[in-house]
Design brief:
The complex is a heterodimer. Chain A is mainly alpha-helical. Chain A has 4 domains: about 5-155, no CATH class; about 160-240 and about 430-460; about 250-275 and about 285-425, no CATH class; about 510-605, no CATH class. In chain A, about 65% of the residues lie in helices and about 5% in strands. Chain A has helices at about 5-40, 50-70, 75-85, 95-100, 110-125, 140-155, 160-190, 200-215, 220-240, 240-255, 265-270, 275-285, 295-310, 315-325, 330-365, 370-385, 390-405, 410-425, 425-460, 460-470, 575-590, 595-605, and strands at about 505, 510-515, 520-525, 530. In chain A, the strands form 2 sheets. A two-stranded antiparallel sheet of chain A has the order 1-4. In chain A, a hairpin with a 4-residue loop joins strand 2 and strand 3. The radius of gyration of chain A is 44 Å and the shape is rod-shaped. By secondary structure, chain B is α/β, with parallel strands linked by helices. Helices cover about 45% and strands about 15% of the residues of chain B. In chain B, strands 2-5-8-1-9 form a 5-stranded parallel beta sheet. In chain B, a hairpin with a 5-residue loop joins strand 3 and strand 4. In chain B, helix 11 (about 270-285) packs across helix 12. The radius of gyration of chain B is 21 Å and the shape is globular. The chains are: A mainly alpha, B alpha/beta. At the A-B interface, helix 4 and helix 5 of A face helix 9 of B.
């Protein structure tokens, strides 16, 4: 190896060492800047922990940049010669000598030889270390340091995007859980019972499937809650009051029918259809989840005692089973047992009433004219009392007319139809129960979603928030019906009340009602509203509890029957608009209600004054 | 007239080269005050067998410099004072009627002042372009053609021309082809105070400084041959080429000043001049290869008369030297 080549190789080693340092710093800078960008992006765009693979990738990229850059930047001997010429002020001796060394035909030229000798002499006094004096790319290093410092800072500081992502993940999980519950409810509701209205059940299942899908596909919890509320409204519109009215109509018809001697038994059996026993069992079942453990234990003992005292074996069996389940803390199963007991009672009563009506239909041809006339009048009154159930009323009316016109055969057929109608009340009541169960399930799902969203918003201030919510007024709605066997007076009541802590709010207050018997407005006593299913700490919401009726008090007015109330006169909307608006806006001004919905409400009152 | 008829095959020793050059510069330094750089660059041009255009105001010693070169080199010297009525034949020579031994009249060529080793073309821009053009063949081909006869000029042959930059009345600017034939254009600077004192002392005393010959025309030819052997790396050559190409305003690598002020850039002859001048300078610096700094050192002298500036440069008072400085700052060495 010539002195020139040896010198240049040594110089190349120095240059490579220096460039290795430079490229290491450059690679670190690339990685640091990229990581910083990822950290910044992670605060806005990246979801979840996806930043860490990016960070790892960019660190690897920095290493690749450093390695590849160093490899690509490896200088040739010619480049080393030029660098050495410049840095050592060799006046192009080295590059020229190296180039001349490659020209074999010029080796003997005198000046070429002299140049080589001159270069070798120069090399003897030169220091190859001077080719690449240690120097650090300060700007790059400073950039890298700043990027690393900022990246570390961003890693240490909490990432709001991660919190949002986590909250969104939880919200999505909550929506999925709610959808799963609704799916189970839909599956349960899809099992038809004999004798019920199949179309109504299909509508129920369809609605539950729709809301399940909507909740699952909802992009936000607010949308899911809105869907649940809409579904609740839909279920409410197809359930509840109609069943209560039908039971009441049957009971009223029974009372009227019992006035005619031939139909005393049938009338009494029909009047028993509206017995409160089954409703009380349903109410008890609905209230079970709200009871404290000690209350449940006490109730279990009471149910066990009632089972012992029951004369009906199947009812005793249901009550006993409910008591055992409640004692074990199986509230849901106990609810089902109680509901089964209520259904059994309804079936028994409607079955007996239907059987008595059938007996009466068969006995019609044996009645004399006077008895038929009296029965026709009683049937006419019964039809009037059963207006809330058009099918039953129509059957009774047709029977009355047939008897009045001397067609006992046709009257018999109409009475049998009335019996079938009464027999169908039990399965419809059961379906109502399922609708109510579905509605309450929707509410529970909605409350859970709202609680999760509220928890996500408060971010650790949950205890404080829960306390505040516990103080919010509860609201309840009850559907009350007053019954009087002598005079049919019906009143539906609404109650609103103050929440009593986390579990429930018992409401009491004025209820509006109507005396349908008289056709005039009446004020009835409002039944208690219940927040039986309300989650702790959340504001109460209207919950429909099916079959909880009979709590309304009726006030008799002289000469107008016992089911009367104070006569009410219509109040112009303009007079109550201000109060209505203020109340609505006040209720809407809550953190739980999305801003856009609050805005919608404000716009409504601004754009549609009376 | 010195006529070098044969040059030894062997190259001159580089040390002898430097010795002769040093001797010539030293000899001229005895008379010339404050013109060492001009002397040095003129010597480089003459070693490169090139012609020199000296520009400077009257009285700076341009004529003395040329005469001193002739004395130091021991070569024949001729001076032509260029005037507007000077005819080409007055420079190249002409045929005159003579009588031979038998008394018959015939035309005989009477050589003009061109037939010398060192010609001083004083105030060359005062002659008409026609007369100026009479120098073209002589400067490039080193021969003179009159009628159907071509006569070679003596070896070595140099033209050292002077021109006055401030007198435009009655002058004829040298055409581009004429300018391109000058190896270097040297701008003779005004002496400072101390140099003026020294000039006064040397030229007004009773004792007159006499220039002794220290080299010959043959030495110059040998020096020129040696200089052309100096190795030059390709990347240095490439740098010189980039410098030349960057003098053209339409070239993508041209600096902004070139694009703005230059009408036309240097020719390939400019590149040759750069390379030859750089090689000679390297030898004079004691090196056996050309460095970037050699190219940079000779660039102003080699390029300033090859850059043809436009009207905007005249209006802005921008000189060729300023453009060249920008050029050297712009073009990268690697």
């Amino acid at each position: 190896m010539s002195p020139l080549t040896a010198f240049l190789e040594r110089a190349r080693g120095r240059i490579e060492h220096r460039r290795a340092l430079v490229w290491a710093i450059r690679g670190a800078t690339v990685a640091a800047v990229a990581v910083l960008l990822v950290q910044l992006a992670a605060r806005r765009w990246l979801a979840g922990d996806t930043q860490w693979p990016w960070v790892a990738a960019f660190v690897a990229l920095g290493a690749v940049v450093a390695g590849a850059g160093w490899m690509a930047d490896r200088p040739s001997l010619g480049a080393v010669a030029r660098i050495a010429d410049q840095s050592l002020r060799a006046h192009e001796r080295l590059a020229t000598a190296l180039e001349l060394a490659g020209r074999q035909d010029e080796q003997e030229l005198p000046l070429v030889q002299r140049q080589r000798v001159d270069t070798d002499a120069w090399i003897e006094g030169a220091d190859p270390d001077g080719v690449a004096r240690p120097s650090v790319p300060r700007f790059t290093l400073a950039l890298s340091s700043v990027a690393v410092a900022f990246s570390a800072l961003l890693i240490i500081l909490p990432n709001p995007a991660l919190s949002r992502t986590e909250a969104a993940r939880q919200a999505e999980a909550g929506r999925e859980a709610a959808a799963d519950k609704i799916a189970k409810e839909a599956e349960k509701a899809s099992q038809a019972a004999p004798g019920e209205d199949g179309a109504r059940r299909q509508e129920l299942v369809r609605e539950l499937r729709r809301v399940e899908e909507s909740v699952r596909d909802a992009e936000t919890t607010t949308d899911a809650v809105a869907e649940l509320s809409r579904a609740q409204e839909n279920l409410r519109s197809q359930a509840g009051p109609s069943n209560a009215s039908r039971s009441s109509a049957a009971a009223g018809a029974g009372a009227a029918l019992a006035q005619a001697a031939p139909a005393t038994q049938a009338g009494a059996a029909l009047a028993e259809v509206g017995s409160p026993a089954a409703e009380e069992l349903k109410q008890l079942a609905a209230a079970l989840p709200a009871l404290r453990p000690e209350e449940q234990a006490a109730l279990a003992q009471e149910l066990a005692a009632a089972a012992e005292a029951a004369t009906d074996a199947s009812a005793a069996q249901d009550l006993r089973q409910a008591a055992e389940q409640l004692a074990r803390g199986e509230t849901s199963q106990a609810q089902q047992s109680l509901m089964a007991a209520a259904r059994r009672q309804e079936e028994q009563r409607t079955g007996q009433a239907a059987a008595k009506l059938t007996d009466l239909a068969q006995a019609l041809p044996t009645l004399d004219a006077q008895q038929q006339a009296a029965l026709a009048q009683a049937l006419q009154q019964a039809a009037t009392a059963a207006e809330a159930d058009p099918a039953l009323a129509e059957s009774l009316r047709r029977a009355a007319q047939a008897l009045q016109q001397g067609r006992p055969g046709e009257a018999s057929a109409a009475l049998q139809a009335a019996g079938q109608r009464v027999r169908a009340l039990a399965p419809e009541s059961a379906l109502d129960g399922e609708v109510a169960s579905a509605s309450n399930e929707l509410k529970r799902a909605k409350d859970a979603l709202l609680a999760e969203e509220q928890g996500a918003r408060s971010q650790g201030a949950g205890a404080e928030q829960a306390k505040g919510q516990g103080d919010l007024p509860g609201q309840g709605e009850g559907l009350g019906q007053g019954q009087d066997l002598q005079q049919q007076g019906k009143a539906s009541g609404e109650g609103s009340g103050q929440g009593e802590g986390p579990a429930k709010g018992v409401g009491s207050g004025p209820g509006g009602g109507s005396d349908q018997h008289r056709g005039g407005g009446a004020t009835g006593g409002g039944a208690a509203g219940s927040l039986s299913q309300g989650p702790p700490g959340l504001p109460g919401e209207q919950v429909y509890v099916p079959g909880i009726s009979g709590q309304g008090r009726t006030q008799a007015r002289p000469g107008e029957g016992s089911g009367s109330g104070t006569e009410s006169t219509p109040i112009p909307y303009e007079n109550v608009y201000g109060e209505y608006r203020d109340e609505a806006l006040s209720q809407a001004d809550r953190q739980l209600i999305p801003e856009r919905l609050q805005e919608l409400l404000r716009n409504y009152f601004q754009e549609s004054p009376p | 007239m010195t006529q070098v008829t044969a040059v030894a095959d062997e190259l001159m020793d580089p040390e002898r080269f430097r010795e002769l050059a040093g001797a010539i510069e030293a000899e001229l330094g005895k008379l010339m005050v404050g013109q060492s750089e001009i002397i040095h660059m003129a010597l480089v041009a003459m070693i490169g067998r090139g012609h020199v255009l000296l520009e400077g105001v009257p009285g700076l010693g341009k004529t003395v410099l040329v005469r001193s070169f002739a004395s130091a080199l021991d070569v024949e010297f001729a001076r032509v004072q260029f005037t507007p009525d000077l005819m080409p034949g007055d420079v190249t020579g002409s045929h005159i009627v003579t009588e031979d031994d038998q008394g018959r009249r015939c035309f005989e060529f009477q050589p003009g002042p061109l037939f010398t080793n060192l010609l001083l073309a004083d105030e060359i821009n005062r002659a008409t372009p026609k007369t100026q053009s009479a120098l073209l063949e002589a400067m490039q081909e080193r021969q003179v053609t009159t009628g159907d006869a071509t006569r070679a000029l003596p070896e070595p042959f140099f033209v050292l021309a002077t021109q006055n930059p401030i007198e435009h009345e009655g002058t004829y600017p040298l055409p581009e082809a004429q300018l391109d034939r000058f190896f270097f254009k040297l701008v003779v600077p005004l002496p400072d105070g101390e140099e003026l004192v020294e000039i006064a002392l040397r030229t007004t005393a009773a004792h007159e400084v006499k220039i002794e010959p220290v080299a010959s025309g043959a030495d110059l030819v040998a020096m020129a041959r040696l200089a052309r052997e100096v190795p030059m790396a390709r990347h240095v050559l490439a740098y010189a080429a980039r410098l030349v190409t960057a003098t053209h305003p339409d070239h993508p690598d041209a600096p902004e000043e070139v694009g703005r002020y230059v009408r036309w850039g240097a020719s390939p002859r400019g590149m040759q001049t750069l390379v030859v001048g750089a090689r000679i300078r390297a030898l004079l610096e004691g090196r056996f290869n050309v460095a970037f700094e050699d190219v940079i050192a000779v660039a102003p002298a080699a390029l300033r008369h090859r850059l043809f500036l436009n009207f905007e440069a005249d209006a802005a008072g921008v000189s060729a030297d300023q453009v060249i400085a920008a050029l050297l700052a712009h073009v990268k060495q690697d």
